[in-house]
Every structure is written in C-alpha cells, then in structure tokens.
Amino acid sequence: MYGKIFETMYEGSMVGAGAHVFAVWGYCISKADPEDHIVRLNTAILSTAIGESVDRIVEAIGFLCSKDDDSTNTDHDGRRLLHLGGLSYLVVSHEHYRNMKSNEEQRAYFRDAKRKQRAKKKDVKDSQRQSQDPASVSASVSASDSVSDEREIAKRESGERFETAWAMFGRYGVEKKAVEYWAAIPESEQHAIVKAIPAYVKCLAVGRSKSQFEGWINPCNRKWDMDWDQAYKDLLAKGQGNGQSKAAERRAEKASREFPEDIKPRML
Q1: Which residues, 6+ apart, have CB-to-CB distance to 121 below 8 Å?
Q2: Which pLDDT score, from 0 to 100, does residue 264 have?
Q3: Which of 163, 153, 152, 187 shows the shortest CA–CA distance to 262?
C-alpha cells in the first residue's frame, strides 16, 4: 500500500511536534487500508521500524489522537486518528487526501478527457464532410475547437481556484452546495474571494464566529466583500479591553501561517 504526503503537512499545526510524531503519522498514511482507512499500530513494531522507544511511539500516537483546534481539517475536532479498539485506528483524513489529485494528475486527466472529446467530434464531422465544401468544414472545425479549448481551460482554472479556496477555508461547509455557488461567480470575484480568506481566518482566531463556506460565498450574501482586515482590527481592539489581545494576536498570526507558499501564487 502507499499514501500521499503533501508538503502542507510540514507547514501546518503539527510544526514543532517532533520527528517521532511525523514518522508515526507517515507510517499511518502509508499503511492505512484504502477501503476502510483503518491502520493497525503495534507500538513494538513501530519502535523497531522508526528507531524510537515504545514510550515515544505511545506519545506520538497520543498526539495524533488528541484534539487540534488549529487543524485545517475540523472533522472530529481536528483529531488525526480515532482509536477504534485494540490496535486499530481510523485515519480521519485518509480518504480525502488519497483521492486528491496532484497537479500532474489533474493535467493528465484533462489531457485524456480532451483527447476523447476531440476524437468523438472528429468522427461526427468526418461523416459530414463528404456533403460539404472542404474549406468551410476546416474553418468551422478550427473555430469550434478553439472555443471548446477556451471553455475547458476556464472551467479547469475555476475548479483549481475552488480547491484552493475550499482548502484555505478549512473545508468547512457543504461542498456540493459551495461548488454550485462557485460556478455562478465570475472569475474576478473568485479571485477576490481567495484573497479575502486569510483575513477572515485571522478573525476566527480572535473570536469571530465561524461561517460555512457555501454561505460565505453565496452571491446573495457576498460575505467576502466585507472589510475583513478592519473586522480583525476591531476584534483585536475589543480583545484589548478584555486583556486578551496578545494571546489573540498570536493565534491569528499562527492561523495566517497555515497557508503554504504553493497556495499564495494562485491567490493573485
């Protein structure tokens, strides 16, 4: 078996947890069953394989089973493992990350889909050419392919922007409904949504109540249009009155670092 390790793992809320935690987590990702996402953790085997004491392995498993308020995955309060009994543990986010296509996989998928689409169109148009002028047929096919290419590229890029925004938002909400709303939002406003999310996440860290993504991007509500930078300052000022501003500021800074460098260029 195998599992996918994404670079964001080394830049999120596990930072500073220790090499033994990352080693056990990598073991869980690679060994989890692809069907039921369950992994068996024998501390004696892990101790020998990783080269850590049994106590350190137990400590790492405890960390992965513990609540994490700073995790971008809010399922089960951010826990990465759920103890099912005995040596069995459920890897909470295994299915999501295993099914997530890498950039190269996405490009290969769209290339293959485009190839099949063109082959189908060619079969239809070849049967019509015998009764049409060759020059007019060639021009028509070229124009049709060009429009189709542009639409396919726009659709793919919109999907990539949604995946970026959905991940930055912590995947909190009803994804199917969020996708419906996203499809109705113009490209310029999709960019505006992605740019607004970091400031919104900082607001959450200083006391702002959490919204579901589909409600936040609902074109009727347009919550992304709110001045989230000013909202953050207002919440921070309110926290100063309660003597909580420093702790709130630290939480907000930590939240802003949750976004990896590979996401930032796509926000522009």
Answers
A1: 141, 144, 145
A2: 43
A3: 163
Find tokens 């189908």 and name the residue.
120
> What token pair was written down for 90?
């459920």
pLDDT at 81: 93
Q: Where are the domains of the chain?
A: 7-98, 164-267
CB 217 within 8 A of CB 223: yes
Note the pLDDT of residue 132: 59
Radius of gyration, alpha carbons of the chain: 24
- The alpha carbon dihedral of 16, 19, 23, 26 has a sign of positive
pLDDT of residue 207: 83
Do 182 and 158 contact (CB within 8 A), yes or no?
yes
Give the E-state strand segments of the chain in sequence order. 38-40, 81-85, 88-91
Tell me the C-alpha distance between 28 and 49, whole Å: 13
Give the strands of the sheet with 88-91, arranged side by side.
Answer: 38-40, 88-91, 81-85
For residue 25, what are the β-bridge partners? none
Q: What separation in angstroms does the CA of 43 have from each of 27, 128, 231?
A: 12, 68, 47
| pLDDT for the residue 116 | 82
- CA–CA gap between residue 98 and residue 36 (Å, rounded): 12
DSSP designation for 208: P
From CA 198, how far away is CA 125, in angstroms rounded?
49
Q: ∠ CA 97-182-80 to the nearest 5 degrees?
A: 25
Residue ranges for the chain with pLDDT beneath 50:
260-268
Q: Report the topology of domain 7-98.
A: Arc Repressor Mutant, subunit A (1.10.10)
* Count of residues in the chain: 268
What's the maximum distance between 2 C-alpha atoms anywhere in the chain? 82
For position 162, what pLDDT does the model report?
Answer: 94
